[in-house]
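Please describe what follows:
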Amino acid sequence: QTSKPVKWYSKVVNFFDLDLLTDRGYVVIWLGLSIAFTAEINFSLMTPIILGDRGFDIDQTAKIMSVIGISDIVFRFLSPFVGEKINISARYMYMSSIILLIVCRTGLTFTNTYLETIITCAGLGVAKGFRTVYMTLVIPNYVPLDKLASASGLQTVMNGILLMLFGPLLGKQIYNDFGGV
């Protein structure tokens, strides 16, 4: 008996575990993580511009950015201990950090003084620290171990696609807003 030949696209689907894309839960996580990642990169790149628009000079902007970075690094270290202590899943910790990021970014629009901005940006750094740690744990906690490499690879591909799509759009908008052609 001769077996039916396997189509080339079936080999691609099997090789890259693209059957993950039939799992709605994975697709929601996949797209959500990528959209959040893209938003984070774009916001991080725009933060100094936003602070400059708010009237802060370069020295103040550098100090504010340092506060974000320091609190981010400190809470990258502390967040696993906090998560373990309160016994919440990585998915909910990630979601909580995204909500805190939204609150802090929104709060940044309402700050008027240097001190208020420092405090808000410290909160932003805390949220970024938690987000960074738990973002990397969401997919491994959802997919089976044998599909983890493919799931992470698909995540990276989607991150790249969204960054290539939205980065230039945002850059063009900023360029136009600041007197470009």
User: Anything to note?
Assistant: DSSP finds six helices and no strands in the chain. Helices lie at 8-15, 24-53, 58-86, 90-108, 114-142, 148-177.
